[in-house]
Specification:
Number of strands: 10
Order of helices and strands: HEEEEEEEEEE
Number of helices: 1
Strand order of the largest sheet: 1-2-3-6-7-8-9-10
Mean pLDDT: 82
Helix content: under 10%
Low-confidence stretches: 7-21
Distance between the termini: 38 Å
Radius of gyration: 25 Å
Structural class: mainly beta
Length: 201
C-alpha cells in the first residue's frame, strides 16, 4: 500500500511540475533600437513590432519584426566645419526574420544566437552640393544655395543577433539585444536595443 501511495504521489508531483512550466508557442512584443547609419548622422532610433514562434520547448525561435526609423539629416558644407544644414529626412522601413537558438536550458533565462534575411526600404534626401559665400573677416556664411538629391531603394541582406531574454512572469518578457545588419548597397549597420514581450500558451 505504501509503495502504491508513493508511486501515486510521485506521479502527481511530476504532473504538477510539468504544469508549472507550460510550453509557449507564440509571443508578441515591441522594441526600441539604436541603429548605426553612415556619417554624419551616425545613429538613429528605430521602433519595432515583433512576433516569435517558439519550437522545442523554447530552445528554437523564429522571430519576425517590422521597424521604422526616421532621423533628421545633418550635412556639413564643403571646406567649412562650423556651418551645417538640417531638415532633410532619412527613413528606413525594415523587415527582418531571424532563426535563433537558446544556449541556456533555463525556464526564465535565454541567451540566443541567430541569423536570417533582412529587407529594408530606404528613403534619403542627401546633400548633392552647395554654393555659398564666406566673409573672411567674420567667418559668416551667406548666400547659401543647396542642391539635394533623393534616393529611394529596396535593399536586401542579412542580420545576425545576440539576445538575452528574462521572463519576469510566465508570460511577461524583457530583453536586450545586439545586432548587425549587412544590406548590400545600403551598407552595414550596428544595432543595439531593448524590448518587452508577452507569451501566449
Amino acid at each position: 500500500m505504501k509503495t502504491t501511495l508513493s508511486l501515486l504521489f510521485g506521479l502527481l508531483l511530476g504532473f504538477g511540475a510539468h504544469a508549472q512550466t507550460p510550453t509557449h508557442r507564440h509571443s508578441f512584443g515591441v522594441g526600441f533600437e539604436r541603429v548605426g547609419l553612415d556619417a554624419p548622422d551616425a545613429i538613429g532610433n528605430r521602433c519595432l513590432l515583433n512576433y516569435s514562434r517558439h519550437f522545442r520547448h523554447d530552445r528554437l525561435v523564429v522571430g519576425a519584426n517590422l521597424g521604422y526609423l526616421s532621423v533628421s539629416n545633418k550635412r556639413y558644407l564643403a571646406n567649412t566645419n562650423h556651418y551645417y544644414v538640417y531638415g532633410k529626412r532619412r527613413e528606413r522601413v525594415s523587415a527582418d526574420v531571424t532563426l535563433a537558438f537558446d544556449l541556456l536550458k533555463q525556464a526564465r533565462h535565454a541567451l540566443r544566437l541567430g541569423a536570417g534575411p533582412s529587407l529594408w526600404y530606404r528613403q534619403d534626401e542627401l546633400l548633392d552640393g552647395g554654393r555659398y559665400t564666406v566673409n573672411v573677416a567674420s567667418g559668416e556664411v551667406t548666400d547659401v544655395q543647396l542642391k539635394w538629391r533623393q534616393e529611394k531603394a529596396l535593399n536586401y541582406g542579412f542580420n545576425v543577433l545576440v539576445e538575452y531574454e528574462y521572463a519576469l512572469t510566465d508570460q511577461l518578457l524583457v530583453s536586450g539585444k545586439v545586432k548587425f545588419a549587412d544590406l548590400n548597397k545600403a551598407g552595414q549597420s550596428a544595432i543595439y536595443g531593448v524590448g518587452i514581450g508577452y507569451r501566449l500558451q
